[in-house]
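Training component of the fellowship. As part of building independent skills, the fellow (R.M.) carried out the full modelling exercise for a liganded target. The chosen ligand was FE2/S2 (inorganic) cluster. The inputs are recorded below so that the supervisory panel can assess the work.
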Amino acid sequence: MSVRRLAEDTVQPAAFAFSKENAAWAEATINKYPKGREQSAVIPLLMRAQEQDGWVTRAAIESIADMLGMPYIRALEVATFYTQFQLKPVGSRAHVQVCGTTPCMLRGAEDLIKVCKTKIAAEPFTLNGSGTLSWEEVECQGACVNAPMVMIFKDAFEDLTPERLEEIIDGFDAGKGAEIQPGPQIDRIYSAPIGGLTTLQPPEAPEKAKAPARAKKAKDDKARDEPAVSVPPSNAAKPKTAADVTNPAVKTPATAKKAAAKNAKIEGETVDKSKPAKKPR
Ligand code: FES
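Fellow's submitted model of the complex:
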């Protein structure tokens, strides 16, 4: 991380004051915090000062510290730590923040930096000839899926080519930045895949209907190709035994009642009880 210092005294204004509208907003913002915790509003107030003047001056930092009842050094720590705060004057129409972290670098951030060097200034944080543009290289801005990208003010411009970035810079330099659509600069919705959605699609009904038809055809083809073979039941699991119960010649009551009666050893077991018993002589 580079050393971040306040701008030279020669460019520092003598005083700072919020505009009437911003002063009312600042008061409302401070009131959102509990009594004794007003210092928590330091980041939003510094950001508002930057949006008002284009950068964060020493006078603004000290003025905001006074508003929040905090030592100047505490407000200075915040302003110099977070790179979203510009400590020197930047382009009046655009300060281009080029992401140079790995995904963006792999997708061509170096070429975007070359464009900035050619069209704006050879060194970062240097104003162009008319004072309207400046640039810097920043860390990941959280839009890696759509790399490479740049931030200008609060907007991200993604999926950039060097040619598209040149057009965007020219648009801001001409004062037409508000007309340029932020976000992906190619045909994609937000961070959805290029060429359209590939997930979370409704099920394709015709495909579903085709699947059983294909399975049936495969089954029919298989049945046609295979010869019809008669396979007798296997006797492999049948026990080999000479016991009467397994002798097929021995008839059972269920299959042949007369033969079964003949087999019976105890007379009376096979007596037909539906007929009257013989009277004893
Ligand atoms: S690496 Fe560039 S936005 Fe994350």
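The panel noted the following from the submitted structure. The radius of gyration is 45 Å. The mean pLDDT is 88.
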